[in-house]
Design goal:
Shape: elongated
Order of helices and strands: HEEHHHHEEEEEEEHEEEHEHHEEHH
Radius of gyration: 36 Å
Strand order of the largest sheet: 3-4-5-6
Number of helices: 11
Strand content: 5-15%
Length: 483
């Protein structure tokens, strides 16, 4: 071997070691990045030694798809579990102390106390105050549910905007991948950037990938094309208000509608479907329960007489004095129920109408003799609060039960939904974490192993450096001998 060839081989070896060292350094710096895929150097023989090519670890496609699917499902379920818990805390409080059930129970207890001493005007005033608390509780619950629906609608709008941005970014990165594959100079960072974008997209909508020629990739969601050469438009018009009985706008991908999830252990995948479920199913159902509680109160405290229709009593609403239809939700009733002015001294009324009847005229008087110790109507009203009546089964609750039992069932329903959503979230998170760990084992970086390889390269570098030094000495000796 000539000295020139030996020098070229040594220089080539140093260059290869340098490239391998850079690859290891890049691996170590990306060790904490979940979207980074480990690089490895492939050494190939050639005429003057060897050549190094840097490659990425290839992850099995089914594993990648399972990871994206798990991420979509976990994203949706985590959001729902969080919002179920928020709803319960907002309208019921801790242990239900701010719930309609608690307020109705306090009213029932006070009514029973007044029935023992019906001549006590202070007890009548206390009953009126408890009735006002019930109304305030229902109004507050309605406002909070409306606020949560608006929040969900705004979150959908933000997700749609972000998804459109991500698809634009995906187009640019995908083009870099294709250009690199076609030129033979793969842009390995572009692959990692594309993986990071896919991860974020999958948190918003479920995504299925199809690999094509030259590293190109097409994206689909729920059978709809999301990206193929160019992004497909994702459209949504947010709502200014979302009162009871109103519906929000739909989300479309390339003109096809994204469907909301169903059930506490939701079928939703991605935050958009979860927010749609929250806005259009979960919160309206909670609202319908409050509306039925309000209707039950109006019916339980209504006035009746012989040969005349029942009329609103202590509790009134914009459709009074006639009563709402039996067993049917009146959308928004919990937000419009009020204390009948005829019973409220602050509005020129008299709370004794509750004891004696007659707020709607002489035909409705129960205490015909005007006895201050008359308790029959107060006792009857207490019984009306527990008497079985018809409720709309669209609320998700039993349609035949008493008002107090129904308001208790509403708490139980929400607690059950919250518990189911939380359990399912924990299961999905565990599955996702296991898949992520498996993917990390495939693509991740073992820093100790990389450092070990770095030591091996250091020895190779030293050997090449010594070879160059030896050739240099031999060349110097040769030049000296020819002077």
């Amino acid at each position: 071997m000539s000295l020139g060839v030996a020098l070229q081989i040594s220089q080539n070896s140093l260059s290869n070691v340098s490239r391998q060292t850079n690859t290891i350094a890049r691996n170590i710096s990306g060790a904490d990045d979940p979207n980074y895929t480990r690089r490895y150097a492939v050494v190939e023989s050639e005429s003057l030694g060897s050549r190094v090519s840097v490659m990425r670890v290839q992850i099995e496609q089914n594993l990648t798809r399972s990871g994206l699917e798990a991420q979509s499902r976990t994203s949706a379920q985590s959001l729902l579990a969080q919002q179920f818990a928020r709803l319960g805390e907002t309208i019921n409080g801790v242990d239900g102390e701010r719930s309609a059930f608690a307020a109705i129970g306090a009213l029932q207890d006070r009514l029973q106390v007044w029935s023992v001493d019906p001549s006590n005007g202070l007890l009548g005033s206390a009953v009126l105050q408890d009735a006002k608390t019930v109304v305030s509780t229902l109004h507050s619950g309605t406002r909070e549910i409306e606020r949560m629906r608006i929040d969900a609608d705004l979150n959908i709008a933000r997700d749609v905007s972000r998804l459109n941005e991500l698809l634009q970014d995906f187009q640019a990165v995908n083009a870099r991948v294709i250009d690199g594959q076609q030129s033979g100079l793969s842009d390995l960072d572009a692959f990692d950037e594309r993986a990071a974008l896919l991860s974020e997209i999958s948190q918003i909508v479920p995504v299925t990938t199809i690999s094509r020629e030259n590293g190109d990739m097409a994206l689909y969601t729920g059978g709809t094309t999301l990206f193929e050469t160019v992004p497909r438009p994702v459209a949504f018009t947010p709502s200014a208000t979302l009162g009871p009985g109103t519906t929000g706008g739909v989300v479309t991908v390339d003109g096809l509608q994204i469907r909301a999830g169903q059930n506490a252990n939701s079928t939703a995948r991605g935050s958009i479907a979860a927010n749609l479920q929250l806005r259009d199913t979960v919160l309206p159902q909670a609202q319908s329960q409050l509306d039925e509680i309000a209707r039950g109160l109006i019916a339980a405290f209504s006035e009746s007489g012989t040969g005349v229709p029942d009329q609103t009593g202590l509790f009134d609403y914009p459709g009074g004095p006639g009563l709402p239809a039996d067993g049917t939700v009146v959308a928004g009733l919990a937000g419009t129920i009020s204390i009948n002015a005829s019973f409220d001294p602050a509005q020129g009324g008299n709370i004794n109408f509750l004891r004696d009847g007659g707020a709607n005229g002489a035909a409705y008087v129960a205490n015909g003799t005007g006895e201050v110790g008359f308790a029959d109507r107060l006792i009857a009203l207490t019984g009306e609060m527990t008497a079985s009546r018809n409720f709309d089964t669209d609320t998700g609750l039993d349609g035949q039960q008493g008002l107090v039992a129904f308001s208790s069932s509403a708490i139980g329903w929400l607690d059950g939904q919250t518990a189911d959503a939380g359990r399912e979230r924990d299961i999905r998170q565990a599955v996702h974490e296991r898949l992520q760990a498996t993917i990390a084992d495939e693509r991740g970086v073992d820093v100790d192993a990389e450092m070990s390889r770095l030591l091996e390269l250091e020895r190779a570098y030293e050997a090449s450096a010594r070879m160059i030094a030896t050739v240099d000495e031999m060349l110097n000796s040769l030049f000296a001998a020819t002077r």
